[in-house]
Amino acid sequence: MDSLNPRQREVIESYGFGSLLNFDKCFVPNKFAKWVANVVDYKSGDIVVDGKIISLTKESVHCVLGIPLGGDPFPSDTVCGKEFVLNKFQKSSIPPVTFFSNKLVKEGGTLSDEDLFVCFIIVALSSFLCANSSSTPSPKYFGIFGDIKRVKEFDWCGYVLDWLLDGVKLFKKSKPSRVKDNRTLAGCLYYLAVSLFL
Q: For residue 68, what pLDDT band results from cuts at 50, 70 and 90?
């Protein structure tokens, strides 16, 4: 975030994601996130702890993260969006997240507005909004790049919430080792942790 200049921040804000610029340092201890995940009922979307129920909703995602709420579902056809990104950066396969973050840091001043936003949102999705254990961005959310001009019209809060609940479901269904809990937890762990206190 520190490497983004005022013009780059304005571009990100113009696409509707200026709120993400506020999340530079929002570390959540893995052990705490896993504890919260263990008290989530992923079917109902509720945190249930000590008889208290805290509902995980699209509205609370918007309240915590400030990303677009409501609108059209994320496109399920990811082929067009994936081709758009690969052609834009002259790649034959999706590069690691570090490729996009390095472009932001090293070439950010010379990138077009669209290229800048694509790099930023791929990094934000991969490392924060829809994080997982892979070093390569998930092609599952590349459908949004099929029509980049409509990016604000998608239900970002719903998508981030669904990704988190799917991550919690997989986490709870996997078995920890006897020595330590080495299971991975996908999703926006910051939102999950903050929700406990809403």
A: very high
